[in-house]
Amino acid sequence: MRIWSLHPKYLDRQGLLACWRETLLAQKVLLGETKGFHHHPQLIRFRLSPDPLAAVATYLVSIADEADARGYSFNRLKINPGRVTYKILVTRGQILYEWLHLKTKLTRRDPVWLAQISGFEMPESHPLFKIVAGNVEPWEKVH
Question: Is the pTM of this model over 0.90?
Fold first, then answer.
């Protein structure tokens, strides 16, 4: 499961679709509708927020917005009601780690997309997050 801290505009088609599916799975986990993934590290930051389900729903809205901008049709009826107006903090180190991780994936999977996004040194975060100083998040499984 990878719920990117990066802005969804950097994700290629496959990455955007996977992020949508995996975040819908995260939503089901938080609703108690799955047997697995309950202790997945990607869920920690959502669980620590004041309203985890609304935070995940807010995250999903931005993914669906990016899909719309690209002409894809994601079923917004799958998004749980409730939204948040606060930002979840994410460290600069986490953003840079994910940026390198994404670029490594794109080297193999979609070099054309990689060339389109390679001009950014410091990418933007997903709209739900606010970048703060710090290293890679403690919940990240660094490879």
Answer: yes
